[in-house]
Fold:
Amino acid sequence: MKPRVIEDAILSHVQAQVPQITALIREFVECESPSDDPAAVNRFVELVADRVTPIGHVRTVPGGRFGRLLACEMKLPGRKKSGQILALGHSDTVWPMGTLKAMPFREADGRLWGPGVLDMKSGIAFFIFAVKALRDLEIPVASKVLLQLNPDEEVGSEVSRSFTENNAGHSRAVLVLEPGTGLEGKLKTARKGVGGFAVVVRGRASHAGVDFEAGASAILELARQIERIAGFTRAARGITVNPGVISGGTRSNVVAAEARALIDIRVLRLKDAPALEKKFRALRPFDRRCSIEVSGGLNRPPMERSPGIVKLFRTAQKLAREMGVEVEESLTGGGSDGNFTAALGVPTLDGLGGVGEGAHAANESILVDRIADRTALIAKLLAGV
Ligand SMILES: [Zn+2]
Structure:
């Protein structure tokens, strides 16, 4: 079936800008910004600040041991009378400095490739060009629009969280510029909550040959506990428990005195978290000579698919249809800063950024032919929500 040819003023305008949008994405990707390198993140934040200065009031605030946070109130046409929309993203990537050497920015096979291109430097570029389009076309926007970029999203958003929650608390809606799901670029209307536990087992060391009976193996104890912990998974209810790291012992001829495990948990519903946490706290040793210490809990609450989120998604779907684009919704097990804003009850629509694949992977890339409709959709949402 041939796609319908639809005349859409914003889409046509943005389509003509794709080379400039691509150039900005390239600049962003070529300015590496790993979470654990605040100087590098600050260079990227400076670059973004420079690009948005003509179209917004920028300020940056210190991010502690991370780079600076960026907040920018956009200068948009129209009288501001109906509250604020928060556009949320992050400046950090998972890629260490120097990744560009092996994985340079390139355009090939209808895609843009490079570290952070999908997660989420293209989303930031789309937002900037969405604002430019509204300004160029003099389309009134009734809400104040605030862009916020966090420097620590990929490592848990510990520093930025309160800033995000504060800005979201003053907003009617949150648009998250993270990538969409899959090569269709589905929007994200639900995200699982994420947490982690550390389980430390202490046993009794002894010589494995001379004094075997006197030992109480922390490794054996932990192995038995892992089986039990993995059994906390309830896949049908959206609860997963993954023992992702284990370590312990010193030498093969020593009965291990200590062993530890790091466990990732995901929940679809906030109300499932306390029961799961309780199960962890209730772990008791099989071998009474061992002890168990449990720490951790839920770090990001789930983004639950609320009526407000569904309404926002339906609006996006309608606006996309004006351009002949069909967008669907998705649930993801991965967290974002949208989890925090949704948990406050603020309607949050996530996954508005790049359409592609390979986030955090060597094939990270976005589809060039989805740059225009994504940018236009962000513009339409800013004007239409
Ligand atoms: Zn991201």
User: Anything to note?
Assistant: The first strand starts at residue 56 and ends at 63. The CA atoms of residues 32 and 320 lie 32 Å apart. The pocket of zinc ion is lined by residues 90, 119-120, 153, 178, 336 (CB under 6 Å).
